[in-house]
Amino acid sequence: MKLPNLNFKRPGKSSQPPTVAGSPTSATPSDRHTFNDTKCNRKCALALAWPFKGSRPPQRDVIMCRHLSPVVLKYGTDIQLSEATTLRYLAKNTSIPVPKVYAAFQIGVVRYILMEFVNGKPLQLALPTAPPDVRDKWAAQIKSFFTELRAIPHPRPGAICSVDGGPLFDRRFEVGLQSFGPFANEKDFNEYLQCGVHPDQRGRFNDYAESYFEADAKAEIQEMEGIFKEVGHKTCFTHADANTGNFIVKGNKVVAMIDFEMAGFYPEYWDYVTAMMAAEDQEPLWKPEIGKFLQEYPKELKGMKLRLTHFGIIGYRSMYYSPWFND
Question: Model pTM greater than 0.90?
Fold first, then answer.
């Protein structure tokens, strides 16, 4: 099984910056990634979802059935069918333990992924009572998973995109689960991360921004812009959500890596930065473990923290509403 043959602008050449930060600078495929879309699988998925049916379809819901034939159903308007493509590719081409995909399809506006239920305990529940030697064994296995992920060849080297070459998706960044990109290269991706901020050579913003931001804030925004001006990172396959809820363990063995809905091709630092950002407040026990299986990128992490401080989780969407950005 190969990743889709994608149609991108040629990365590496100068591309036009997006008119709105986060809008595509690269072609977007139309593949819907359906798999085993049969009447039987549709009936099974609808039967699982029926007891939880509401007046409107959910954005994202997960149902686990542990009896008879153990399965997991992910369904909703914001489910990414590309996750099913990713899982099938990883199962066929790597040794990373991932759930088997039984079906992936769309009915109306709702997308469904039917997959294997992996028996075990989320690392989130196992970590607090685990002795140091067991934690080290888990970290070593997880490190091997990320090594394999980074070895996956990129169909269009340099482009920042989802596994299918389409828009990126990150529930941590947007209100309303909006997608962003794809981007032809790291330069365009950095434009998104900078939230449209472009101080001039003297470090001066436009008049509105000069009156809006305090001096210390302007200095930090300039620092953030400097960090995200740098290019040259390797673009590699990225899980993008390495939190403790996404690893299933049994004893001292990691039996599954799950939840690839935000996966894609990102700059090499992305897994470390997103894992550390998630662990800052929510997972203090996980934070010291991350450096055991991911290379550290402290400068890029600082840039993301500054971005969150001054532009919040909505980031680029401020461009729609606020006049402090330069044209």
Answer: no
